[in-house]
Write a structure and sequence with these properties.
heterodimer, A: alpha/beta, TIM Barrel, 8-stranded parallel β-barrel, 4-stranded antiparallel beta sheet, 9 helices, B: alpha/beta, Elongation Factor Tu (Ef-tu), domain 3, 7-stranded antiparallel beta sheet, 6 helices, 19% helix, binds flavin-adenine dinucleotide, binds flavin mononucleotide, binds FE2/S2 (inorganic) cluster
Chain lengths: 302, 247
Amino acid sequence: MNTKVNFCGIEFKNPVLTASGTFGFGLEYDEYYDISELGGISVKGLTLKPREGNPTPRVAETYGGMLNSVGLQNPGVEVFKSYYLPKLKAEKTCRVIANIAGSSVDDYAEMARSLAGVGVDLLEVNISCPNVKSGGMAFGTDAKNVEAITRAVKAEASQPVVMKLSPNVTDITEMARAAEAGGADGISLINTLMGMKIDVNTRRPVLANIKGGYSGPGVMPVAVRMVYECSKAVSIPIIGMGGIMTGDDAVEFLLAGASLVMVGTANFVDPLAAVKVKNGITDYMRRHGIDDVNDLIGAVKA
Amino acid sequence: MREDLKCVISERRTLPSGQVEFILDNPRLAKEAEPGQFVHIAVENGKNLLRRPISICDAADGKTRIIFEIKGEGTKWLAGRSVGDTLTLMGPLGRGFDLDIGGSAFIIGGGIGVFPLYMLAKKLKNPKIFLGFRNKDMVVMEDEFAALGKTLVATDDGSYGEKGFAIDLAEKEISDCDIIYACGPKPMLKAVKAVAERHGVRAQISMEERMGCGIGACLVCVCKTTTGNRQVCLQGPVFDAKEIIFD
Ligand SMILES: Cc1cc2nc3c(=O)[nH]c(=O)nc-3n(C[C@H](O)[C@H](O)[C@H](O)COP(=O)(O)OP(=O)(O)OC[C@H]3O[C@@H](n4cnc5c(N)ncnc54)[C@H](O)[C@@H]3O)c2cc1C
Ligand SMILES: Cc1cc2nc3c(=O)[nH]c(=O)nc-3n(C[C@H](O)[C@H](O)[C@H](O)COP(=O)(O)O)c2cc1C
Ligand code: FES
């Protein structure tokens, strides 16, 4: 049985990765299982300078998922390069994706320059964070900006560039096409959906930041639909995510047109979620007599 | 490797003050547990996705004791479990109290914050214990603490013990104190920090924040410290009071 997927010229041992912001730098979950079992990990969103993020509460549970308003707290790209990346490269065999964010086109370009040639396998460009005031989602909801940032990052990057799209748009295929036009090697989607929760007893929003990003199983049908639409609209490969809890969920994304999938919120429900998703995919393949996981990609009968 | 542990509930009790107590059977959990650490319990009702953090009240001989208040859906589901049921949980998690500070210790607990202090009290030599509750009906574990050290109780309305706050009782005797260990509502912890600083006494306080992963990966549970935002689940829940910045 083959589970290897070639994505943008890079071989992943299996199509299951973990989603940025839900898996730290991988080391926390590595205490529960060897993360080398995964195809790869996308690390917490990085910025040029360290960021402290938003005030707490930063999390609210909702039916079918959760809202977060972390606001890109991270130690900055230099700490990633000097500490986390060498450790991951020395001790782990899964692919490492750097998720990067900025508040201007120049920031994104500088991030890409700073990560050129350091051993990161793929750049995932977060133009869809709903939790920061400047930049973030403001970029990802305007096709012209999407194309401009893609171009700027591509000019500096030494590795394939994947643009992470926001679902908070009327037509996601417009953003996917803009990324492709800017030279992106792939796209990943979806980031979180903008949401809000109010405590009816106190009449106050639960999140200190009032609004936050909705993730978890509740978003999955929206995410599958968007992956499906994008796979029809562009010819670059797709990383699909949004609410994946099981192997069968991941297979839905593959069928819809994703080549790789990412597991996010499910990690909080079960620390072993990502390996279970990986094993769930092979179970599915066995059940359905499928020898190559690549045969599932885009194989929805629609 | 760490594990997502399965723990059988071997005893269940509803306390007069309303909280629910479980004794959980799991050798590994009981062996590794330290005062001030917590467990992150899966709510397996098909509805609540996030786990619930609950402190370890005591642990020994393969058994771990937890006590929790019924607040919302998660703890309501938890309270509905009976003897023989199995809980899935991660733990022990976080950094507990530093037991090696030495000197004469004051333990200050407020409300449900008294539970994580019990195992601490057992491990310290002759601590002085100050417990605060809203009123007489909410007083809990007084006798158990009294067996471990001199214990004073305060209630907000004066319906039991002294009227006022536990920290005020403690401040009256502060000249006998080298280290304060505290757990309770935020205003109480803020007062503990102020008292400790006023008298030049070290204090360790246990912080509470809403959590996601419980192991340091998602950064939702941070509190403000002098060295930036730090994860309550990983670098806490116990911090030195002088590091914490209260808004
Ligand atoms: C380190 C730590 C140790 C704790 N130890 C104890 C204990 O020993 N005994 C006890 O009774 N309670 C303890 N708590 C509080 C307990 O976690 C909450 O009461 C519980 O999560 C509420 O869940 P719920 O579903 O009943 O309430 P809901 O209000 O329905 O919960 C909704 C969401 O908010 C979170 N939440 C709500 N209140 C709190 C709170 N006070 N702290 C953190 N998260 C909260 C829940 O986990 C859940 O994600 C502790 C909290 C922390 C952070
Ligand atoms: C707590 C949290 C933090 C996140 N941080 C980031 C981030 O830093 N960068 C990013 O691109 N996406 C971030 N995301 C979005 C996830 O990577 C993912 O796109 C989204 O949660 C949908 O997947 P899920 O439903 O499986 O969680 C975050 C999500 C959560 C829940
Ligand atoms: S709960 Fe995820 S970092 Fe603390």
